[in-house]
């Protein structure tokens, strides 16, 4: 009876933890969309509002859009079988026309289905002529009136969705302990849009703009798997997945293209803003100049710009574990100070001084100083977060008097995060290969003495940054 009570208590405790995890992490499950929802107006993007708030033009430009189609030929990605559904919505011409209308800078005319329009006008003419004889003189006069001519466009807008790149970035993290665990995953896709304005008088391409938009998918899962006893298994799982709608991503990319086309065309005097809104429009142009100065995006929407100066000073707190001839090594604290000089934006030379202790429980304990010279390679120098790899040589010297130095080779790796300009926070691991077997004052076996190092620290960068 006591055993059963203990098992039930454990079950209740574990279920409480699982439920608490679910309610805290998966708020969407609490408000699960299980009820019917009424129709609403379509969602807007940040650039929908920007287009609607643009200053008024001096004169609207008549534009025609014959087609603005999916040019990728891309089907929806599938991990299990063939999927014949297209990855891009096929109504992109309608999206572009709506964006042009929202901007209030253009008068759009129907050209995508011009055959339908001409056919309907012909039906109107034929109907008027057929029934003209049965009408009064006044009605006949009205019936014989010619239909007004169609508007013609001074500019044709062309282009389309030119690429759909799937899985440009994927990743995730998870952990499991005694049958209880959780994981999260993400994936980024990207679409690219080109839009160009063509003069109908000369056929000259007046302006071309290019925009892109990433599409983010995320999933969060939690699970519980545990044998309560030999014949009873308790299992539970919960999860949620969020996928950014492709339609909204396409809509935002097209609206961004229209917005940029208006700004860029104004710079080249293709069209002009109303005189009363000159000051407001100048502010938008100045903002666009700032964007152009940093317009160097990578595929994951990270702005590429120099982040580290040519010089740096560093300070680290370390933990050392000796791998020598004795057992029961202890983790002993230490510190490192040093300086760096960048040979390029990726590679730097580092000189450092370290002070630490090495110890085997109840057998050996000794304080050491170390001088190290390393070459370091930063993989993503323009990012706020970057992995790095380093290697070099060093001298290990016991702090007691008249002690000889020992040579060693270093290799390590870690990650650096820049929360502020010119300030880097680091976490790393290092392995020191000894050239001698007497670091612990004992020579035995064929292996040299080594040290495992792990630590955290701060780098302060200063000086001129590398532009390339």
Question: What topology does this entry show?
Answer:
Elements: H1 2-25, H2 27-30, H3 46-52, E1 61-65, E2 69-70, H4 92-103, E3 106-110, H5 114-131, H6 137-143, E4 155-177, E5 180-199, E6 205-229, E7 232-243, H7 246-267, H8 278-293, E8 309-323, E9 329-330, E10 332-342, E11 347-360, E12 364-378, E13 385-398, E14 406-420, E15 423-434, E16 450-465
Parallel strand pairs: 1-3, 1-4, 2-4
Antiparallel strand pairs: 4-5, 5-6, 6-7, 8-10, 8-16, 9-11, 10-11, 11-12, 12-13, 13-14, 14-15, 15-16
Helix pairs in contact: 3-7, 4-7
Written overview of the protein:
InterPro entries: Beta-barrel_OMP, Curli_assmbl/transp-comp_CsgG, OMP/PagP_B-barrel. One of its GO terms (cellular component) is outer membrane-bounded periplasmic space. Keywords: Cell membrane, Lipoprotein, Membrane, Palmitate, Signal. Residues 1-28 form the signal peptide. The chain is built from 8 helices and 16 strands. With 468 residues, the protein is an alpha+beta fold. It has 2 domains: 44-111 and 153-293, ABC-type transport auxiliary lipoprotein component (Rossmann fold, 3-Layer(aba) Sandwich); 309-465, Porin. β11 and β12 form a beta hairpin. α3 runs parallel beside α7 and α4 (92-103) crosses α7 (246-267).
């Amino acid at each position: 009876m006591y055993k059963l009570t203990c098992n039930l208590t454990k079950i209740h405790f574990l279920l409480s933890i699982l439920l608490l995890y679910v309610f805290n992490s998966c708020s969407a499950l609490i408000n699960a969309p299980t009820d019917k929802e009424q129709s609403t107006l379509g969602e807007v993007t940040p650039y929908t509002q920007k287009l609607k708030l643009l200053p008024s033009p001096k004169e609207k430009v008549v534009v025609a859009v014959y087609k603005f189609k999916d040019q990728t030929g891309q089907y929806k990605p599938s991990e299990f079988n063939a999927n014949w559904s297209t990855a891009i919505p096929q109504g992109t011409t309608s999206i572009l026309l709506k964006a042009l209308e929202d901007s209030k800078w253009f008068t759009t005319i129907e050209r995508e289905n011009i055959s339908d329009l001409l056919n309907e006008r012909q039906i109107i003419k034929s109907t008027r002529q057929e029934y003209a004889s049965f009408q009064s003189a006044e009605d006949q006069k009205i019936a014989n009136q010619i239909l007004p001519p169609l508007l013609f466009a001074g500019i044709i807008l062309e282009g389309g969705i030119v690429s759909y790149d799937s899985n440009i970035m994927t990743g995730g993290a998870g952990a499991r302990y005694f049958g209880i665990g959780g994981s999260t995953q993400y994936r980024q896709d990207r679409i690219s849009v080109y839009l160009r304005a063509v003069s109908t008088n000369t056929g000259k391409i007046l302006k071309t703009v290019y925009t892109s938009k990433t599409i983010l998918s995320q999933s969060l899962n939690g699970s519980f798997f545990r044998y309560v006893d030999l014949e009873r298994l308790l299992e539970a799982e919960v999860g949620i997945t969020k996928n950014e709608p492709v339609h909204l991503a396409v809509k935002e990319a097209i609206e961004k293209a229209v917005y940029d086309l208006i700004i860029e065309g104004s710079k080249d005097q293709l069209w002009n803003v109303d005189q009363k809104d000159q000051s407001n429009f100048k502010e938008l142009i100045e903002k666009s100049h700032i964007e152009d100065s940093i317009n160097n995006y990578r595929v994951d929407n990270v702005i590429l710009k120099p982040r580290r100066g040519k010089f740096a000073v560093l300070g680290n707190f370390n933990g050392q574990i000796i791998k020598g001839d004795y057992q029961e090594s202890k983790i002993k604290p230490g510190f490192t100070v040093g300086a760096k000089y960048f040979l390029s934006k990726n590679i730097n030379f580092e000189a450092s001084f370290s002070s630490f202790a090495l110890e085997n429980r109840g057998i050996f304990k000794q304080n050491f100083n170390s001088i190290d010279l390393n070459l370091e390679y930063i993989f993503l120098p323009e990012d706020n977060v970057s992995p790095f790899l380093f290697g070099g040589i060093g001298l290990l010297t016991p702090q007691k008097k008249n002690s000889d130095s020992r040579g060693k080779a270093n290799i390590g790796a870690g990650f650096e995060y820049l929360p502020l300009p010119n300030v880097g926070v680091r976490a790393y691991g290092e392995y020191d290969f000894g050239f001698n077997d007497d670091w612990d004052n004992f020579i035995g076996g064929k292996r040299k003495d080594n040290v495992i190092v792990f630590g955290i620290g701060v780098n302060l960068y200063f000086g001129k940054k590398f532009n390339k």
